[in-house]
Design brief:
Order of helices and strands: EEEEHH
Distance between the termini: 35 Å
Structural class: alpha+beta
Number of strands: 4
Radius of gyration: 16 Å
Shape: elongated
Strand order of the largest sheet: 1-2-3-4
Number of helices: 2
């Protein structure tokens, strides 16, 4: 699926990617859609691909805890803004 960056008033899309320590290829995709004046839909998609065969073993034991904590912080900050 091909995704584009967008910076329209009612829709923001940002896709970023990088390689970490020559072991992981990480891509993050943020999609914000204005529903109305007080509600915004926020979709966050991330991929984490191992570039080395032995790193794939470590990913089997990985959890979603870090991602969940990140999204909770984003939610807290977004809801605090008036």
């Amino acid at each position: 699926m091909k995704r584009k960056n967008s910076n329209a008033p009612d829709k923001k899309i940002l896709k970023v990617g990088f390689v970490l320590a020559n072991m992981f290829e990480i891509t993050a995709y943020y999609d914000l859609n204005k529903i109305n004046e007080t509600v915004t839909s926020f979709t966050y998609t991330v991929t984490n691909n191992a570039l080395k065969w032995f790193v794939k073993l470590f990913l089997l034991f990985a959890s979603d805890k870090v991602v969940v904590q990140f999204l909770e912080r984003v939610k807290t900050v977004a809801e605090a803004q008036d």
